[in-house]
Amino acid sequence: MTPPLISPSILSADFARLGEEVRAIDEAGADWIHVDVMDGHFVPNLTIGPMVVKALRPHSNKPFDVHLMISPVDAYLEAFAEAGADILTVHPEAGPHVHRTVQAIKGLGKKAGISLNPATPAKMLDYLIDEIDLVLVMSVNPGFGGQSFIASQLKKIEAVRKMIDKSGRDIRLEVDGGVTPETARQSVEAGADVLVAGSASFTGGPARYAANIAALKGTTPEEGQ
Ligand code: DX5
Ligand code: ZN
What we know:
Blueprint: E1 5-8, H1 18-27, E2 33-38, H2 50-56, E3 64-69, H3 77-83, E4 87-90, H4 98-107, E5 111-116, E6 134-138, H5 153-167, E7 172-176, H6 181-190, E8 194-197, H7 199-202, H8 209-217, H9 221-224
Parallel strand pairs: 1-8, 2-3, 3-4, 4-5, 5-6, 6-7, 7-8
């Protein structure tokens, strides 16, 4: 089985040393850098904004995978695009016109992702699948790192994999929340090709990062590089 791409969530990094942390996780084999943006309104937590994305941009050439858990979202798309985001992922519940939001992201020249909360059905994608570049299946309720993987989401991953294959389009299927080496394997078997991992990537400090990423990919550190 092809190893998944790993997108470490910097939510679990040391915020006092964020630039160094991004460099270290990049050098350890991260494929993308996952940035969790929270507004204390759409989700019950506050994190970072476009200024931090801009400050981190010079620290890695890997794609910045920016997960927007904010409502309203449209007004902030341009700022995140200019700050250096490569992928902008939004939740359909974050605004009344998610199709328009996707159009706006594409208009900014960025890849567009749709994130499905644990209770949001795959069917939500029916009229978006031909426009998007990524589907992010949330395997926890958004808002915090370190939660446990909700096993019912494996069925949704399988359903989304079928939709993507049927579309014939180049769409990434990403899973976010509670990803460990064990749930990573289950998610990949269900059809995921990108895994977000916060706690599991950053646990143990920089000396462990390469081994952590390799364990999530199901490879040894050397193969994982
Ligand atoms: C949760 C975030 C996740 C989170 C994952 O709202 O979207 O990206 O940081 O953290 P872990 O991997 O620790 O569950
Ligand atoms: Zn996330």
